[in-house]
Design a protein that fits this description.
Layout (H helix, E strand, L loop, with lengths): L1 E2 L9 E8 L2 H10 L8 E7 L18 E7 L11 H16 L5 E4 L3 E4 L2 E13 L2 E11 L15 H5 L5 H20 L3 H10 L7 E5 L5 E9 L5 E5 L2 E5 L5 E2 L1
Parallel strand pairs: 2-3
Antiparallel strand pairs: 1-2, 3-4, 4-8, 5-6, 6-7, 7-8, 9-10, 9-13, 10-11, 11-12
Helix pairs in contact: 2-4, 2-5
Length: 252
């Protein structure tokens, strides 16, 4: 265990493992056992059962990337505002990239961060809701640091691929923790409008006519107009705005 004195919240306690089945599962076990301190980070060099959004699997070479989950106790939050945690996390990853000198970033709803249109990080958030409050959250992040890709893998990238050299994972991690601290503090202080405005500023395809696909296979041209109060995507097609939840619309 590493007690990180420079962290305000995120990473104040850091549990590092060479190998875990899932950092997300380990963090949830800590919550279930009543042993969770807000800001505790569970990190692994390799996951044997890492999860992505809605059951997808996160693939990562051992020791090449940041694979971590951190615990929050945002009891100040109403369940209907839980997407604010996605905003906080995706903006913090984007802030971290900016500190590293990378500016051509965007946030792809609901849970990806892109550089030059390619995925560099993914987010998975689970919440424990009780008494109309979010009692606990586990925020999982997969961040490609030194991952190597074959020529045909054009949809993903890493810091190594962008900057052209091996990156020190621990240094990137500590920058990320600092960025997460700042964005989470904004949320706790009630600066939701600031978070929302920043999110829209970097939202992938915002106000841009693009192609989308529905679960029945139908494709259409639409324009992202924003998000509703629940974090659902608002897309306008032929003058009609429709609200979509996760898995109800695909980017093509």
């Amino acid at each position: 265990m590493d007690n990180r004195r420079n962290s305000l919240v995120i990473g104040k306690v850091l549990l590092e493992f060479e190998r875990l089945d899932s950092t997300n599962r380990y963090a949830w076990d800590m919550i279930s056992d009543g042993k969770s301190i807000e800001g505790t980070v569970v990190s692994a060099g390799f996951q044997t059962a890492g999860k992505g959004q809605v059951g997808n699997t996160w693939i990562s070479d051992a020791g090449s990337n940041l694979l971590l989950s951190f615990i929050l106790h945002p009891k100040f939050m109403l369940p209907k505002h839980q997407f604010d945690l996605n905003r906080v996390t995706s903006l913090a990853i984007r802030d971290c990239l900016q500190v590293l000198g990378i500016d051509n970033t965007s946030i792809k709803w609901p849970n990806d961060v892109l550089v030059g249109g390619k995925k560099i990080a993914g987010i998975l958030i689970r919440n424990l809701i009780s008494h109309n409050r979010i009692q606990a959250s586990v925020v999982g992040i997969g961040f490609n640091i030194n991952q190597q890709f074959e020529d045909g893998e054009i949809k993903a990238t890493s810091l190594h691929a962008i900057l052209g050299s091996h990156q020190k994972t621990e240094e990137v991690r500590d920058i990320l923790f600092s960025c997460l601290d700042k964005r989470y503090l904004q949320l706790k202080q009630g600066h939701n409008s600031k978070l929302h405005a920043d999110y829209l500023k970097f939202l992938f395809r915002y106000e841009t006519l693009s192609n989308y696909r529905l679960p029945d296979g139908k494709e259409f041209l639409g324009t992202i107009k924003g998000l509703d109060e629940y974090g659902r995507l608002i897309v306008e097609h032929e003058g009609i705005a429709t609200v979509y939840s996760i898995k109800e619309i695909a980017f093509i």
